[in-house]
Known about the structure:
Blueprint: H1 3-17, E1 23-25, E2 40-47, E3 50-56, E4 67-73, H2 81-96, E5 105-107, E6 120-124, H3 131-134, E7 135-136, E8 141-149, H4 151-160, H5 162-172
Helix pairs in contact: 4-5
Amino acid sequence: xxxxxxxxxxxxxxxxxxxxxxxxxxxxxxxxxxxxxxxxxxxxxxxxxxxxxxxxxxxxxxxxxxxxxxxxxxxxxxxxxxxxxxxxxxxxxxxxxxxxxxxxxxxxxxxxxxxxxxxxxxxxxxxxxxxxxxxxxxxxxxxxxxxxxxxxxxxxxxxxxxxxxxxxxxxxxxxxxxxxxxxxx
Length: 185
């Protein structure tokens, strides 16, 4: 599969569940030249009250376990360039550092949205969209949710595991769209 058709397949997969991309952005600072040429961050309307920032071509057709990630936010947070930078940095880490996957955590190095205590992320199943989003069949690519988390939540995850953290999220009925949400631990 060539790069253009691979990229189109990824965009079509997201669009089949959400919307056509509202924006297609390539971050232009830092070592972005080390990312695939076709890497972009796409912005989608997921629902009336949710926007998704999603990677496109973070994975490549030759990858053993192709992976794409998304972050959810309020439509009012759409103008926040941090989300494009955040996904670009995570993609760079995935491509040039440690390969990421389900259950891994990532240090953002700064809040995901200004003034947020969430300076980390945990890679989770896309619970809100289910297996229809999680797996693109041809080519086979996995799409996972990058959930912004607090340092205390990451510490808890490292001690008790991802499932225990997700149980805390569920029990607290945490608002995953609220950048100012309190920690669940």
